[in-house]
Design brief:
14 helices; mainly alpha; globular
């Protein structure tokens, strides 16, 4: 394995560790409602940190933006907005379908499309048939791993009701259920748009390179644009819930909720900053293979965090078997994607 490939995988692993744990502080934020936490989280992760990183690391940042066409700015911005809408739809889908089914549909579709769309759109002519089969095999095994892990988690929720999420909707048949499934599918299609924003916003990074930045630093110029699009739906939905639930008063006292929300934002944006760096080391397929590896490491981290914090302590044996099987599939998928990126 080439040194750059090894560095890319390690960076993606670190990104997965951070992303897989970024929601963990919410478990300890007892005094704030969801919308209070999410508002601060969104401002920190989607506005403050991306701009701070870009301003601190990218020379001639505004010259870079000024040299771009409106279309080159609009593409990552609109993809980011699509991802932001998906964030809102995720919460609605979980409420209507329950965490298990919603998570399987949304994360599965997001991982599938986020990996394959950049590959086919940007790099199809560069990929041999054998390499393509390796990558597709890795994606299929990844989807199976996600499905098994989610199935195990759904059984655990129904039996024990222990975990960070206690949302176990009881979907019924008929048009209402079909509509909820279709909504989850729409969310799954839009969920990888954050990766599309980064992958199809590389004109921004290329322009930053032309103005004297290294490829590693230039990647940070993409995030403020893409995440600005994602900020608007998250910000609007948080304000809507704050007004609806009359939860503005929850902001007092500020601590510890503010600190925990900032920590969430730092972990989340730190993860995507590392992912952006890893895509450079992973080569021309970085925004495709890297996304698949990022999703795998994120899910594996979330599973391990749940085990360590006792969420699976009293889980039925069947759910534990499914969890271990899913984890094994995700491990195999990691190897297949790494081999496909040789």
């Amino acid at each position: 394995m080439a040194p750059s490939m090894s560095i890319g995988i390690v960076l993606t692993l670190l990104a997965g560790l951070m992303s897989g744990n970024c929601m963990l502080p919410m478990k300890f934020n007892k005094r704030w409602q969801w919308e209070n936490t999410w508002l601060v989280f969104s401002v920190v992760s989607l506005i403050i940190i991306p701009w701070a990183l870009a301003l601190g690391l990218v020379d001639r940042l505004f010259d870079t933006y000024g040299a771009l066409t409106p279309l080159q700015i609009a593409i990552p911005l609109l993809f980011g907005a699509g991802w932001g809408i998906a964030q809102v739809l995720f919460g609605i889908s979980v409420q209507r379908l329950g965490l298990g089914l919603a998570y399987a549909i949304i994360v599965g579709l997001g991982a599938l499309l986020g990996t394959l769309v950049p590959l086919f759109v940007q790099h199809r002519s560069q990929v041999s048939t054998y390499t393509l089969l390796e990558i597709i095999a890795g994606v299929v095994v990844m989807i199976v791993g996600i499905g098994l892990s989610t199935w195990g988690g759904q059984i655990r929720e129904r039996r024990g009701r222990e975990g960070i999420y206690n949302t176990d909707a009881q979907p019924t048949g008929g048009s209402g259920y079909i509509g909820a499934v279709l909504l989850a599918i729409v969310c799954g299609v839009m969920a990888p748009m954050l990766n599309f924003s980064f992958a199809f916003g590389q004109d921004i990074a290329h322009q930053a390179v032309l103005l004297g930045n290294s490829e590693l630093r230039a990647a940070y110029a993409v995030w403020p644009i893409g995440l600005a699009g994602g900020f608007l739906p998250n910000f609007a939905y948080s304000l809507y819930l704050l007004r609806k639930n009359q939860s503005w008063s929850m902001f007092k006292p500020i601590a510890p909720g503010m600190y925990l929300s900032i920590l969430m934002g730092a972990l989340w944006m730190g993860a995507f900053a590392l992912y952006g760096m890893s895509s450079t080391y992973l080569g021309s397929f970085g925004t495709s293979i890297g996304w698949g590896l990022f999703q795998i490491f994120m899910i594996m981290t979330a599973i391990l965090s749940g085990v360590i914090t006792g969420e699976w302590k009293n889980a039925p044996g069947r759910s534990r078997l499914l969890l271990v099987s899913g984890f094994a599939c995700l491990t195999c998928a990691t190897a297949l994607l790494a081999i496909g990126n040789h």
